[in-house]
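[agent] plan:
  1. take the single chain provided in the ticket
  2. run structure prediction with default settings
  3. attach structure tokens to the ticket
  4. add a short note for the reviewer (M.T.)
[agent] executing step 1
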Amino acid sequence: MPNLQPNQTPVAEQSGEVRRHNFDEVSLGYTLDEAINEAQRCLNCKDPRCVKACPVNVKIPQFIEKLAQGDLSGAYEVITETNALPAVCGRVCPQENQCEGSCVRAIKGESVAIGRLERFVADHAPKTVSQAAPISSGKRVAIVGSGPAGLACAGDLNRAGIDVTVFEAFHTAGGVLVYGIPEFRLPKAIVQKEVKALQARGVKFEFDAVIGRAESVDELLCDFDAVFLGTGAGLPQFMNIPGESLIGVLSANEYLTRCNLMKAYRDDYDTPIIRAKHVAVIGGGNVAMDAARSALRLGALSVTIVYRRSAEELPARKEEVKHAKEEGVGFSFLTAPLEILGDDTGSVRALSCRKMTLGEPDASGRRRPVPLPDSEFTIDADCVIVAIGTTPNPLISSTTDGLDADQRGRLIVAEHSTATTKKGVFAGGDAVTGAATVILAMGAGKQGARDILDYLND
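[agent] step 2 finished; step 3 output follows
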């Protein structure tokens, strides 16, 4: 039993007004009593739909049953059989669209809070699971990128006795978990704790290693039996509208990297970052919410999300939208940017927009935005952050013969596989799909580990 007080008093949740002035974690976890009470709501279905809806197939009823009995160590062991990053997933997974969305309880009420229970176990369980490195198979695999796909692949290969080395371009591990997701949503100490657990089991990390520059994929294949590419999608997209070259226009990718990985929000770091007064964020996904909420915390007086569809079509998690509104983020729905306007110094002064209406559904299944005539207006802004998506960096595909990518830079893999067009090279996550979710990338990393093991055993 963990050293927790069963009737401990929950930490008071900060108001939105207080939150917008600090980077403390927003979503608070359960107390022990709350976690056990919630776990006891699980029906322990014989054919659990929640497991099928989980991209990494966590044995959800089994871990929840252990938790309901107060066996946190046992619950943690069940989770980590399939999920190498439970404290991360418990915080940032879109459970409402996956496990919780498939929970039988949700048919006539509220689903079991699977994500919060996973987080509680990861945060509080005694880590008694053996950290000893498994018996080596003599095989070596290189993993390029230490984001969710790379870490998941590394964890599964390590368990199978593979000697794994992860090559990371940045100075710390985590990929989008450290450069993209803000501290108030995912504390970086949590990420590093998960990484250290992998290191304790024998996974090696090499930092500041830009594969495709310092060393090629072909050179890796000389030293390793296989290579997994989990390089993510770090190349930002822009709208190609007039004014995007003005001072004060930047991608959400750069803005969040400066704020998170380079810690520009802290006074003891000298990382330069724009501290604007009136910010417009173009986009409606989780990245847009992260950028908007970060801008408030960096001193903005007003922040407006500009989204060309309605509130019902917002792709961001409902929880993130709720928190953004509580903190004072404004929303301009059915609004399409036309031009970024500048002043005499070449800096942003406003965003010119046009109102939209929704027409027939497009290829995505969402209703297509249609411009309304004579509906132009402007939004005052001295900074515009573009958060409309990212694509894979072309560095590796452009420097590796025989490694094919599509016209959007996404690495091409075989159907139902992570095998690329180059023998011995596998890929998964955002490098293949384009920007998606952490848990989908982890699922791809686990698939990559299975495919690599099959390849090595042929």
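[agent] step 4 note for reviewer: The first strand starts at residue 140 and ends at 144.
[agent] ticket updated
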